[in-house]
Amino acid sequence: MVDAIIIIICIIAAVNIGFDGLQLLPQDILEGVSNIEALRFVIAGFAAIIGLGVGVAVQTTYRRLENQIRQTKIEVIITRAIGLVMGLLVANLTLAPVFLLPIPKELSFFKPAFAVLGSVMFSYLGISLADTHGRTFLRLINPNSIESMLVAEGTLEAMPTKILDTSCIIDGRVEELLKTGFLEGQVLIPQFVLQELQNLADASNSQKRIRGRRGLDILNQMQENYPDRIVINKADYEEIETVDAKLVNLAQEISGTLLTNDYNLSKVANLQKVQILNINDLARALRPVYLPGDYLELKILKQGKEPEQGIGYLEDGTMVVVEEGSDSVGGELQVVVTSSLQTSAGRMIFAKPQSESESYSNVVS
Fold first, then answer.
1. pLDDT of 97-153, one tens digit each?
2. SS3 319
3. Which of 176, 191, 272, 263 is nearest to 226 (CA)?
4. What is the per-residue DSSP string for 163-202?
5. Can you tell me the distance from the alpha carbon of 176 to that of 313, in angstroms, rounded to the nearest whole number?
6. pTM of the model
7. Which of 322, 261, 316 is nearest to 288 (CA)?
């Protein structure tokens, strides 16, 4: 919308200049024109084409400037703005006596030229000083905060806000992460994610309805337990259709971290340089590592494919194949790990029943 407005304004301005610029031509040329009105429209038409080109150039420059501002840290923008204002203030105070000097009319152009040159020089000097000493200035504003000082000096990076997606809320494990303290910073829930949860809770499909209501219950519980950390953001992007695209766009705008367990969303966000925290990746990374010789207490649930094999499962769902464990189906069994295998479907552990000598040595140790 803004792009169209910029181009239209440039075209209208160019048409007005072309339509009224005919008056600037010398009088003898105008007297030789048989149809002045037709000439006005012809010049206005060419001016509209030129205005279109200028509008596209201005719109492209505006978008580049907007992207550059979005990628600039807020403390840099603040310090540069303060430096610019201070530079202009010093320029006006310094150049004020110059305008009081008696200058001949032939040199009257000297005052505005000197004013423009001085303003540009002092403004650039103020911005340069802000880039050099801006962090120290921010430290002076809040000297009692060690964290603010470290952030201002560039030693410590500011903690990014975590943005929750719908699947992560329904999953419920994020509440456990908050409870254990491993998830730091503010947790932001966008309005369009709440709307998606509401649509799921009102769906005709019973499975979707259960998932939506579970997500809303978990979110209400998190708000009660952590009212200072859970933030509802009312921002929405009506021009963007999918919730995943809205999440990526919001994370880019606020330089936030997207918290999800959606594999496809993680891939799309990574392609667009958005930081991702995938709960499933965290769960896989925290799985305990069992080496040959480690001991497990395992419940044998069923027989294996091979004779005398028993099958059990760890708490994280890892399958354990126990040799000579078919006789213990339905019961608990002490086993010792012999090997492990990583497959495309997951990890598989092989074990054997613990002998009496191994059990005695384990108790002694």
1. 777 777 777 666 677 777 888 888 888 888 888 777 766 666 666 554 445 555 555
2. strand
3. 176
4. EE-HHHHHH-HHHHHHHHT-S-S-EEEEHHHHHHHHHHHT
5. 23
6. 0.47
7. 316
